[in-house]
Structure formats: C-alpha cells, structure tokens
Amino acid sequence: MRQLASIIASYILGMALISFGVVMIIRADVGAAPWDALNVGLQQQIGLTIGSWVFIVGFILILIAAAVKRTYPQLLNFIPVVLVGSLIDFFNGYVLTALNPVQLFTKYGAFLGGLLVLAMGIAVYLNTKVPIRTPHDDLTLALSKKLNWSVGAAKTLTEILGLVLALLAKGPISFGTLISVALLGPLINMFIYLLFNRTRNSGDAS
C-alpha cells in the first residue's frame, strides 16, 4: 500500500512539474512545443483557457488513437489530461502571473528553465511505470503499430501533425520550438540517469 501511494505521488508530481514547465515556456514567449503551441493558439483565436484546450485536444487524440487501433477509447488516458490541463490553468492563473520577461536574455532564461522543469517532470512520470499514457503517447504507439514504424518515427509524425495544426491556429511557433524539439529528448534521458539510474547503480555497487 505504501509503495502504491509512493507511485501515485510520484505520478502526480511528474504531472505537476510538466505543467509548471509548460507554463514557464509559454510565458517566456519565444516559441512553445508544437502541441502546447496549438493549445495557446486555440485559446487566443477562439477563447477558453489553455487548460480547457488541453482537455478538448486530448480527448480528440484519444478518439483518434482508438480509431487507429480499432478499439474502444482508453478513457483512463484522460487522467493525465485532466491533471495537466487543470494544473496549467492553476500555474498560469495564480502562480506564475508575475513571469512576463521582456528582455531577450530573460525570455530565454525562463524558456530554458521551463524546458528543464518539463524534462524533469517527464522523467519522473515515465519512471513510475504507470500504464496510463498521455494522449500524445497513446497516438504515437498506435501509429507505430499501425504503420509498422519505429516509435521514434511515429513520434516525429505526431509532432509534425501538432506543428501543422499549431501553425493553422497561429500558435507561438518560433526558435524556441526548434530548441524544445532538439533538446527535450536528451534532457529527459539526462534526468532519468541523474535521478534514477545513477541512484540504482550506486545502490547495486554498495
């Protein structure tokens, strides 16, 4: 029971860090990751909150993934959508309201800080091994199996889809978008090693 509580707490912590990092990146205003940029673009063009669009887009992706797999929608995958969407609105509306960098170096400082927090959150979330995927991950794995592609190739396809939709929604696509696409994966691997693998290796050595 204690182990289960620890896993749930780590899962929620991972989602909180992901949400905090996303808001930092958005408020840095130098470009967001494709799917985050889509949510911001929809919020600016249509209304509602960014978190509301996380709910809506996430639910649509769950339905698309189900159609690709020809199965019923995995509604449990809506849990991270609710967590992240709610936390994004909380952090954006109440915690990080003073984060409005003006100078370019402060913008990129906030952006890089957000990218580090985001990568750490994803590493914590992945380490829990909880089999409840985000809609983006679910769609990636569904496309990988359907098209007989590698997971990496399918992930690239879903990111391109998000980028095209973000451009259509006039979301914040800029140089920061390219940085996030290039650095997020390596940063996630770095945090997995620093936070978990190195600790396990040290424990084995002792």
UniProtKB/TrEMBL annotation:
<feature type="transmembrane region" description="Helical">
    <location>
        <begin position="175"/>
        <end position="196"/>
    </location>
</feature>
<dbReference type="InterPro" id="IPR038750">
    <property type="entry name" value="YczE/YyaS-like"/>
</dbReference>
<feature type="transmembrane region" description="Helical">
    <location>
        <begin position="108"/>
        <end position="126"/>
    </location>
</feature>
<feature type="transmembrane region" description="Helical">
    <location>
        <begin position="147"/>
        <end position="169"/>
    </location>
</feature>
<dbReference type="Pfam" id="PF19700">
    <property type="entry name" value="DUF6198"/>
</dbReference>
<feature type="transmembrane region" description="Helical">
    <location>
        <begin position="75"/>
        <end position="96"/>
    </location>
</feature>
<keyword id="KW-1133">Transmembrane helix</keyword>
<protein>
    <submittedName>
        <fullName>Permease</fullName>
    </submittedName>
</protein>
<keyword id="KW-0812">Transmembrane</keyword>
<keyword id="KW-0472">Membrane</keyword>
<feature type="transmembrane region" description="Helical">
    <location>
        <begin position="7"/>
        <end position="26"/>
    </location>
</feature>
<feature type="transmembrane region" description="Helical">
    <location>
        <begin position="46"/>
        <end position="68"/>
    </location>
</feature>
